[in-house]
Amino acid sequence: MLAIFEKAALDAGRAIMEICRTGPDVRLKQDQSPVTEADERAERIILACLSESLGAIPVVAEESAAAGRIPETAGSFLLVDPLDGTREFVGGHCDFTVNIAFIETGRPVAGFVYAPALGVAYAGSSEGAFKLTVDDEFRVSERTPIAARTTPAHPKALISRSHNSPATMEYLNANDITDRGVVGSSLKFCLLAEGSADLYPRFGCTMEWDTAAGDALLRAAGGVTLTLDGLPLTYGKRGRPGLRDFANPDFIAWGKKP
């Protein structure tokens, strides 16, 4: 399955970078979040690839969901964010990603994250977690096993570039966490998984397609994503009174929770 994710993500990344070089047209969706031609083209590429190889598995993809095209998700399904970090992409930053994940009974069991502007990708499943080097021809040139590190006495936290919140800063200050890095998109999960940082507190709205692939990678690397109740983040959340379908609660992702 990860080989299929890899092909889909690399093909989508190629299209994203073509648009990046020419300059994207930006529109606002109904929720006022930005969307570009890159989001839409990348999603079409991914969905075509997944349909060809994994056609029996339902797919929930961000732009399709925004248009109301959402399949039944009982049991197993796929989650796709074709361009996580659209604000980073539009703003000329390199920390945007392509994300594909497989969900089984509410758990992210396989995930692929690709950062095309950085030439790196990450894959995680029951077979372990790996960092991939991707060359200028969008081919994988190296695969390296990775693992989350033991949390040190003075941990490093990652916070969102575009979606930081006062509650996140209050948490860091209350816990005297002063070593902080600012990163966009699901790359925060990837940096935890490779042992470059220790925690990612997120107090604010995220959707399941934002987190699933990175969460799968992190779990494969020995980490965990927990709600504020201390329970693992789950997927396929639908039909909850007063809550958006597929919306996540606040959470803290840990490399290895102390």
Describe this entry's structure for a reader.
This protein has 258 residues and is an alpha+beta fold. The protein has 2 domains: 2-145, Fructose-1,6-Bisphosphatase, Chain A, domain 1, CATH 3.30.540.10; 156-254, D-Maltodextrin-Binding Protein, domain 2. The chain contains 7 helices and 14 strands. A 7-stranded mixed sheet has the order 3-4-5-6-7-8-9, sandwiched between helices. It has a 3-stranded antiparallel sheet with strand order 12-14-13, sandwiched between helices. Strands 1-2 form a two-stranded antiparallel ribbon. Helix 1 packs antiparallel against helix 2 and helix 6 packs parallel to helix 7. The relative contact order is 0.15.
List keywords for this structure.
three-stranded antiparallel beta sheet, Fructose-1,6-Bisphosphatase, Chain A, domain 1, seven-stranded mixed beta sheet, 258 residues, 2 domains, 30% helix
Topology:
Layout: H1 2-22, E1 26-28, E2 34-36, H2 37-54, E3 59-61, H3 62-66, E4 76-84, H4 86-90, E5 97-104, E6 107-115, E7 120-125, E8 128-134, E9 140-145, E10 156-160, H5 166-174, E11 179-183, H6 187-193, E12 199-202, H7 208-220, E13 224-227, E14 251-254
Parallel strand pairs: 3-4, 10-11
Antiparallel strand pairs: 1-2, 4-5, 5-6, 6-7, 7-8, 8-9, 12-14, 13-14
